[in-house]
TrEMBL record:
EAL domain residues: 22-273
Descriptive protein name: EAL domain-containing protein
Taxon lineage: Bacteria, Pseudomonadati, Pseudomonadota, Alphaproteobacteria, Hyphomicrobiales
Shown chain mapped onto the complete sequence: 482 to 768 of 771
């Protein structure tokens, strides 16, 4: 009991400090969303056929004046919790469609929406507004949602996705394979594309079973008529293991580039990666 008391005295200031840090993050995040403290960067998505950039994923960044760049893995859940995610989605959709409209026509853009966006009635209107405001061809826009989004509020979410799809926007299922196994209803979801999570990629260069697993998933998605992106390709060895076994339409990962500014995507739009199919161990530099 004596120790217990002492312990509480010791931890109390820390709990207090943690609470205050959190409160401060919340206040700062609200301010950032309202006053333009967020920005968007774009990670290239490469065609496995042409080895050129065909699209990119819009990824939100929060540049905190004192703490530096804060990861969306931290501020997105916080924004969901305090009910301001729709403001972030509106901002990212607006910025990404405006930028994409300035790129060559064959380059599209993907925007992540959160599960919570589909609890909100405004999400469909937000997508329509961004398209109207930018004049972007809806066929160039992809909305990414995770399995969790599709499983919670199934009917409501599916109805909203169907409305977004009716605008000509395509829907991608993000981080596939990390949530509940969605296999039994994969063919019933209103989705066009599947993004296989990077956890399936990490050891494919060294583990035959991992390679067979990802190849099987790609094949399954194809047999359901979905196009496939493999995420998280970091090394040339992973790429050269993957391509003889599976042909996902598109590839994404640090091997091809991490997120760039909108102008960076424009510059990269002419690049061709110099590893063809079948891949030979050559340089992974952009020509
Ligand atoms: P995500 O949608 O799966 O996005 C891919 C994440 O993986 C990005 O992290 C990207 O930088 C990272 N990544 C890409 N290639 C590689 C690779 O080869 N290796 C490794 N280790 N990582 C790679 P980021 O930007 O930190 O975003 C994390 C997550 O935050 C995203 O995962 C997405 O779920 C969420 N997020 C980001 N921007 C937004 C947004 O605007 N709205 C919403 N709702 N969520 C967002
Ligand atoms: Mg995503
Ligand atoms: Mg993903
Ligand atoms: Mg992810």
């Amino acid at each position: 009991k004596k120790n217990g008391k002492a312990r509480w005295q010791l931890f109390e200031p820390r709990i207090d400090e943690a609470f205050r840090t959190r409160q401060r993050l919340i206040e700062d995040l609200r301010a950032a969303v309202e006053k333009g403290g967020l920005n968007v960067v774009y990670q290239p998505i490469i065609s496995s056929k042409t080895m050129r950039v065909v699209s990119c994923e819009a990824l939100c960044r929060w540049n905190h004046p004192e703490l530096g760049v804060i990861s969306p893995a931290i501020f997105i859940p916080l924004a969901e919790e305090i009910g301001i995610i729709s403001g972030i989605s509106r901002y990212v959709l607006k910025a990404a469609t405006l930028e994409c409209a300035k790129w060559p026509e064959r380059i599209g853009v993907s925007v992540n929406l959160s599960a919570k966006d589909f609890h909100d009635d405004s999400v469909v209107g937000t997508v329509r507004e961004a398209l109207a405001n930018s004049g972007l061809d809806p066929a160039r826009l992809v909305v990414e949602v995770t399995e969790t989004a599709l499983l919670n509020n199934k009917l409501e979410t599916a109805a909203k996705l169907a409305m977004i799809r009716a605008e000509g926007v395509r829907i991608a299922l993000d981080d596939f394979g990390t949530g509940y196994s969605a296999l039994s209803y994969l063919h019933r979801l209103p989705i066009d594309k599947i993004k296989i999570d990077r956890s399936f990629v990490s050891d494919i260069a060294t583990n035959k079973h991992s390679l067979k697993l990802i190849a099987g998933i790609v094949g399954l998605c194809h047999s359901l008529g979905k196009s496939v992106t493999v995420e998280g390709i970091e090394t040339f060895d992973q790429l050269s293991a993957l391509l003889p076994e599976a042909r996902p339409e598109t590839l994404q990962g640090f091997l091809f580039g991490s997120a760039l500014t909108a102008n960076g995507i424009k510059t990269m739009s002419t690049a061709v990666w110099q590893f063809g199919a079948p891949p030979k161990p050559r340089s992974s530099q952009i020509s």
